[in-house]
Amino acid sequence: MHLRLILTLACWCTLPGSDPAMFRGGPRHLGVYDSAPVALDKVLWSFQTAGRVVGSPTVAGGRVYVGSTDGRLLALDARSGELRWEFRTGGAVDSTPAVAGGRVLFGSRDGRFYALDAATGAEKWRFETGGERRFTAPGIHGAAPRTERMPDPFDVFLSSPVVDAACVYFGSGDGCIYALDAATGSLKWRHATGDVVHASPALADGRIYVGSWDRNFYALDAASGKVLWTFATGQDPVLHNQEGIASSAAVGEGLVFFGCRDGHFYALDASTGKERWRHDNRKGWVIASPALRDGKVVFPTSDGTRFKVLDARSGSLLLSLENRAVSFSSPALAGRMAYYGTSDGWLHAVDLEAGRESAAFQTEGNRQNGPQWLDPTGRMKAGTYPEATLDGMIIGLHRMFSLGSVLSSPVVADGVLYFGSTDGRVYAIR
Questions:
Q1: CA-to-CA distance for 181 and 302, rounded, in angstroms?
Q2: What is the pLDDT of residues 261-290, one digit of tens each?
Q3: How many percent of the chain have pLDDT more than 70?
Q4: Are the C-beta atoms of residues 76 and 82 closer than 8 Å to each other?
Q5: In angstroms, how far is the first alpha carbon of the chain from the final one?
Q6: pLDDT of residue 400
Q7: N or C: which end of the chain has fewer CB within 10 A?
Q8: Peptide bond into 138 cis (omega under 30)
Q9: Per-residue model confidence (pLDDT) at position 241
Q10: Do residues 18 and 91 make contact, with C-beta atoms less than 8 angstroms apart?
């Protein structure tokens, strides 16, 4: 592994991390963070899986729980990276697990949702959804033939569960949002949307907030599943014929924040769903989920290749930094630092007070395969995607994944940063 230090980071004391530490800042997925920063100057360990690691790790009780496209949910020792147990499913595990009540809860592309004993990996229960699938659209991403409906290969994540004392909530490729009894797996309620739900819910004030590929954002009563309000995002059939919401919401300041593939980032009133403001990303999608801190909302964009900080109340742009590649990774905030990944196999650390990148970490995939697929400026070479067809797109995507793309959202716990990459590794660095 190679480390690139652009500017020496200030020395920070390590504060005890929350337990569990997980995607979106905690078990309710509010996108609010309170961890201490990490310097990124030491690799503690890495663990190699047989697939890609797309979802984020969850750290609880001295273990790191993480899924892989090889169909396994893994429990690793947080200090050493040693495998403690594994559980095999019938499909890729592209969701981030939740840990609550001594159970690990997660979904798989086999169409099942699982609850395992956190200590042993023994199955406690499973729930059959209506099945998993990727979002589809005619001529996806401009691929020929334009009239043929195609699965979107960039629909890479599964919905990650949010939990409270009694229930677990998640979305599914069958188009439904589910609420299950966390102890037994019995169905409490489900709500059908018009398309795939791969965004992860947020839970705040007795409400579930989540978007769907049907272009609508939903606020549901957590107890009953009753729709409290919906908000319709925009359409852009000329440039992007596949609008919808993959970004998971952040909740704070009385507002709900999320990105959309219509090229905008939205802030809605959490009580009413009324639009407070929207930010135009100039046709750039926002697939990553935003993070909140000190009245600011933070997120990277995909094809716009920007890292942005907005004023949470007004939506005014406070900071915009250029990346060399797209980003699906949701930022983790720790002190003055924001950590997120990009598709070229780099994990970035941005000093929010200084307004610049302070450090970056290079994955093994980037080190090994970067010379083949990246030009001297660090951007994808022309011809990486060989043709404007679905097959050509999939070939190009696999080439990008060979770079160790950091699609996983990093998690900070006890002075250590954990994340996965498409070179199949789980990393622990400090």
A1: 36
A2: 988 999 999 999 999 999 999 878 899 999
A3: 94
A4: yes
A5: 13
A6: 95
A7: N
A8: no
A9: 63
A10: no
Task: Work out how many domains the chain is built from and give that number.
Answer: 1
d(CA 62, CA 324): 35
| Owning domain of residue 288 | 2-429
Q: Which candidate, 63, 65, 68, places its Cα nearest to that of 89?
A: 68
Q: Count other C-beta atoms under 10 Å from residue 80's C-beta.
A: 12
What pLDDT, in 10s, does the model give residues 4-43?
A: 433 323 332 323 334 688 888 888 888 888 778 888 889 9
Q: What percent of the chain has pLDDT over 90?
A: 79
**What is the arithmetic mean of pLDDT over 139-161?**
89
The CATH number of the domain holding residue 418 is: 2.130.10.10
pLDDT of residue 16: 34
pLDDT at 115: 98
pLDDT exceeds 50 at position 130: yes
Three-class SS state of 284: coil
Q: Does residue 141 or residue 222 have the better pLDDT?
A: 222
DSSP string, 357-380: EEEEEE-HHHHHHHHHHB-TTSSB
Residue pair 99/118 in contact by the 8 Å Cβ criterion: yes
Contacts with 65 (C-beta within 8 Å, 6 or more apart), sequence order:
57, 58, 59, 73, 74, 75, 76, 97, 99, 104, 118
Report the pLDDT value the prediction gives residue 9, as an integer from 0 to 100: 32
Over residues 84-94, mean pLDDT: 98
Q: Which of 39, 82, 58 is nearest to 415 (CA)?
A: 39
Minimal CA–CA distance to 227: which of 219, 236, 237, 235? Answer: 219
Q: How many residues does the chain have?
A: 430
Asked if residues 379 and 325 have their Cβ atoms less than 8 Å apart, the reply is: yes
Strand boundaries in 226-304, DSSP class E: 227-232, 250-252, 255-259, 264-269, 275-280, 291-293, 296-300
- Identify the CA nearest to 39 among candidates 12, 79, 1, 6: 12
- The candidate with the shortest Cα–Cα distance to 20, out of 71, 75, 57, 73, is 57
Quote the pLDDT of residue 388.
84
For the stretch 224-230, contacts whose Cβ atoms lie closer than 8 Å and that sit 24 or more positions apart, written own/partner, are 224/189, 225/177, 225/179, 225/188, 225/189, 225/190, 225/191, 227/191, 228/273, 229/272, 229/273, 230/273
Of 353, 355, 283, the residue nearest 322 (C-alpha)? 355
Q: Give the pair of three-digit tokens for residue 100.
A: 């609550």
pLDDT at 240: 56
For residue 87, how many C-alpha atoms fall within 13 Å in the half-sphere facing its CB?
A: 27
Q: Which two tokens stand for residue 286?
A: 């926002």
